[in-house]
Amino acid sequence: MGNIATINVELVPTARAVTDEDRRHFPIYIQILDLDAAGKCWKETTRKLLAIDPDENTLAARRLYDSYLVRAKWMCETGIKTICSDKNASFEHWVVHILKSAIEAGKILKPETQNIDQWAHEQVRRLMGQNILQPEQNFSRFKPWTAVTVYTAFKFIKKGYNPAAGVEATLAGLAQAKGIKIGGLETAEFQISIFNNLNADEELKFVQQSLRDKDRLIEVMEKMTSAWVSGDLTSLEEIFQMAFSETLNLKDKILFRRNRNWIPKIKTILDKPGNYVVVVGTAHLVGKESVIDLLKQEGLFVKRVH
């Protein structure tokens, strides 16, 4: 155990922006929120997580624990917004805090009776390798879809992909630099809720297909990127059809329902004076019931420029 007398509570960041110290503390923030959500005693958490004995100086230990917990909650409520808006932020940190904000709100804690948990988490633990999430400690209380999703994200990161350099982040950065207002067709919380509300059968199929396709992730991404750059809509549609071949209900929830929800919002934007840019994922732009198809059904003239 560490000596509580050597611990300075002020070392826990209090700045109104995400700091390098926050980034070093990410693993602590993740776990302290998880343990707090589980109702663990603060003394137990202090011993386990901060490696100090709270009985040596209870007041100082409690102040340290509270400082970490307050900052961890700030990261989920406020810091995450900074991370999401910063095109230079590391995507892995964004993933961590998107998931953690939902966990802290009790939205994606797994039911103890869910039969696929043990199998799915064992597969993910075997695959994850080294990363800051320490899946054997943190993912045991997640629903399986979160573990698979984060595994996928980290695999792309390790391959060198950086979503901060993607189209959406680039355009957002340009808009921010010019003081252009940015809105959204939906919230991150809504996106999380899509997966969180999957029934057991849908989640099982999603996890199984994701794990079966794990060795083809980079290959598929490279094909998709090549098709996107060349404007090959036929190839893109084939890729997405294959991706959802065993999870048609999920395809409806992830793509088609959202497309239908967006159409009234896009039409409202188009009715306003001025010029607007609406950015959505490529999968929403190809095939039947895509955003393009639905806009045409609404009688709008849609012209492809690339």
Q: What does this entry look like structurally?
A:
With 306 residues, the chain is mostly helical. It has a domain at 1-85. It contains 14 helices and no strands. The longest helix is centred in the N-terminal third of the chain and has 28 residues, at 58-85. The model is unreliable at 1-9, 87-94, 101-116 and 129-138 (pLDDT under 50).
Task: Please give a handful of descriptors for the protein shown.
0% strand, 306 residues, mainly alpha, disordered N terminus
Short description, anyone?
With 306 residues, the protein is an all-alpha fold.
Question: Could you give the topology of this structure?
Answer:
Blueprint: H1 20-37, H2 42-49, H3 58-85, H4 91-104, H5 117-128, H6 135-138, H7 144-159, H8 167-177, H9 188-196, H10 200-212, H11 217-230, H12 233-243, H13 248-270, H14 291-297
Helix pairs in contact: 1-3, 1-4, 3-4, 4-7, 5-7, 7-10, 11-12
Mean pLDDT comes to 75
Order of helices and strands: HHHHHHHHHHHHHH
Query: Which ranges are low-confidence, i.e. pLDDT below 50, for 5 or more consecutive residues?
Result: 1-9, 87-94, 101-116, 129-138
What percentage of the residues does DSSP assign to strands (E)? under 5%
Give a short account of the largest sheet: none
**Shape summary:** globular
Radius of gyration, in angstroms, nearest whole number: 22 Å
- How far apart are the first and last residues' alpha carbons, in Å? 62 Å
